[in-house]
Write a structure and sequence with these properties.
Mean pLDDT: 92
Subcellular location: Cell inner membrane
Structural class: mainly alpha
Subunit structure: The complex comprises the extracytoplasmic solute receptor protein and the two transmembrane proteins.
GO molecular function: transmembrane transporter activity
Function: Part of the tripartite ATP-independent periplasmic (TRAP) transport system.
Radius of gyration: 20 Å
Number of domains: 1
Distance between the termini: 21 Å
Domain Tripartite ATP-independent periplasmic transporters DctQ component: 26-157
Number of strands: 0
Order of helices and strands: HHHHH
Strand content: under 5%
Number of helices: 5
Shape: elongated
C-alpha cells in the first residue's frame, strides 16, 4: 500500500514539475508575441491558442501536486472546531466517497473527449492557427487522473491518521526523520 501511495505521489510531483516547466514556455511564448506584435508589427497566429492551452495545462498539471502539498484553499471554519481525529475521518471520507469519484468521472469524460478529438483530427476553431486539440485534451485527462489518484492517497493518509488537515507532506517527512 505504501508503495502505491509513493508511486501516486511521485506521479503528482512529476506532473507538477512539468506544470512548472510549462510556466516558462508560456512566458517565452508571450514574450515572443509581445516583441513580434509591438516591435515588428507582426502578431503571431498562435499566441491566443498557446496561452489558453498552456494556462489550462499549468493549472491541471499542478492540481494533484497542490493537493499533495495541501496548498489548495481550505474552508474549514466549521471542521476546525472538531477534534483532530474527527477532522481526519471527515476529510478522508469526503475525499474518498465524493471527490475521487467525481474526479474519475471528469477524467473519463476528458479521456473520451481526447480520444474522439484524436480519432477525428479535431481542430480548434477559435483562431486562424487552428491547432489539433487532442494534445491539450489529453493533458486535461492526465491532470484530472492524477488529481483523482491524489484524492485517494490523501483519503488514505487521513483515514490512517498519518495526516491532519492543514499539515503538508513536507512537515510529515520532517517528523519521520
Amino acid at each position: 500500500m505504501i508503495f502505491l501511495r509513493n508511486i501516486c505521489e511521485q506521479f503528482s510531483a512529476i506532473l507538477g514539475f512539468f506544470g512548472r516547466l510549462a510556466i516558462f514556455c508560456l512566458i517565452a511564448a508571450m514574450l515572443y508575441e509581445v516583441v513580434a506584435r509591438y516591435a515588428f508589427g507582426a502578431p503571431t497566429l498562435w499566441a491566443f491558442d498557446i496561452s489558453y492551452m498552456l494556462n489550462g495545462s499549468i493549472f491541471l498539471l499542478g492540481a494533484a501536486y497542490s493537493l499533495q502539498e495541501d496548498a489548495h484553499v481550505r474552508i474549514d471554519f466549521l471542521s476546525q472546531k472538531f477534534p483532530r481525529r474527527v477532522q481526519q475521518i471527515l476529510n478522508g471520507l469526503v475525499y474518498l466517497l465524493v471527490m475521487a469519484p467525481i474526479g474519475f468521472a471528469f477524467t473519463n469524460v476528458a479521456a473520451n473527449k481526447a480520444f474522439k478529438a484524436f480519432k477525428t483530427g479535431e481542430l480548434e476553431s477559435v483562431s486562424p492557427w487552428a491547432p489539433h486539440v487532442w494534445p491539450f485534451y489529453s493533458i486535461i485527462a492526465l491532470g484530472l487522473f492524477a488529481f483523482s489518484l491524489q484524492f485517494i492517497v490523501e483519503a488514505i493518509n487521513y483515514l490512517s491518521g498519518t495526516k491532519t488537515p492543514g499539515e503538508t507532506n513536507t512537515e510529515l517527512q520532517d517528523l519521520e526523520t
